[in-house]
Amino acid sequence: MKEETSRIRIKDIAQLAGVSVGTVDRVLHGRSGVSEESRKKVEDILAQLNYQPNMYASALASNKRYVFACLLPLHAPEDYWAFVVNGMKQAVAAFSDFNVSLMIEYYDQYESGSFGAAGNKLLEANPDGFILAPALKEETALLTSALKEKSIPYVFIDFNIPELAPLAFYGQHAGQSGCFAARMMRMLMGGQTELVIFRLINEGRLGSNQQQIREEGFCSYMQEHCPEVKMWKLDLHAKHPEEAESLLDAFFAAHPQVTCGIAFNSKAYVIGEYMQKQQRTDFRLMGYDLLERNEVCLRNGSVDFIIAQQPTVQGYSSVECLCKHLVLRKKVKESNYMPINLLTVENMDFYLDAHGNND
Questions:
Q1: What's phi and psi for 358, nearest 5 deg?
Q2: Is 263 exposed, middle or buried (0-12, 13-18, 19+ CB in 10 A)?
Q3: pTM of the predicted model, to two decimals?
Q4: Which of 74, 101, 162, 206 is most buried (CB neighbours < 10 A)?
Q5: What is the tens place of the pLDDT at every residue in 63-83?
Q6: What gap in Å lies between CA 132 and CA 287, rounded to an integer?
Q7: How does DSSP classify residue 249?
Q8: Cβ–Cβ contacts within 10 Å for residue 42, how many?
Q9: Using CA atoms, how far apart are residues 196 and 268, in angstroms rounded to an integer?
Q10: pLDDT tens-digit map of 267-296
Q11: What 3-state class would DSSP assign to 59?
């Protein structure tokens, strides 16, 4: 049967349904301009014949060009987001037959209005699809509303806001990740009753939604299971890294009894390198993302655990998702959660070998 249906032509379907070839073509490609009666006739015939159009061949034949807009946080070349971009570029190369290209704009996570300005710049280009790392919900909602008006599908990466209805999401479950970190920290503390949360901020603003939700999940778990634990918070200045050492000096001078801590961002190496400089080996530290400097800290023992989330895979998958949806007309999975990988010096190399990059 499969061999027979593969030879069915659009002309044959049109004849059986009693409609024009153009009507069948519009139904197959999900285009407008077809009455409900005609659409139903065509769909009934397609169902009877179990017709499977070769969308790959159709996409190649169309020679259409697809532009995907990407809105990501501003970052240094060695930071987490560089791996996301690398994954996106790998996907563009993999799907080069479909004439896919990327437009990337960056926004300052710590500056109000930066997200909207960069997003509007991308909107002016009328891209076919959109990939974005959400900022604050209100800012993100303004952009997604404009995307809906233009019928541009959008994919969220790193953090999800389900009520804004993205086509798909790729990233960790932030709340569960925070709870997982708390469970590990509980064991790492070994009976200690105080810990410190290192936060990266600028003028009171956290750099990402992920940080906030991870922290909330962590604190919720600790309060439920370890209510006796005192949790201090130390804010480090995102745009003034030169101040970190003096802030850490002041905190540990005031709290010498604190020997456990966690950073919910990718900058655990700031604390790890500080401990290395101070020649402290008694401090237990957890962080996120296997950047090169975090890797070094894992190897020298100044960081105990790193939670990784495969940013290269996230970047690749987000582009692949739009290709499947727009080019191949395939249904895509809405929620795509990355595994919560706990890395130590013992298993880090296996992870690196498996993923071919630093995270």
A1: -80, 0
A2: buried
A3: 0.82
A4: 206
A5: 789 999 999 999 988 899 999
A6: 24
A7: H
A8: 25
A9: 12
A10: 999 999 999 999 999 999 999 999 999 999
A11: helix
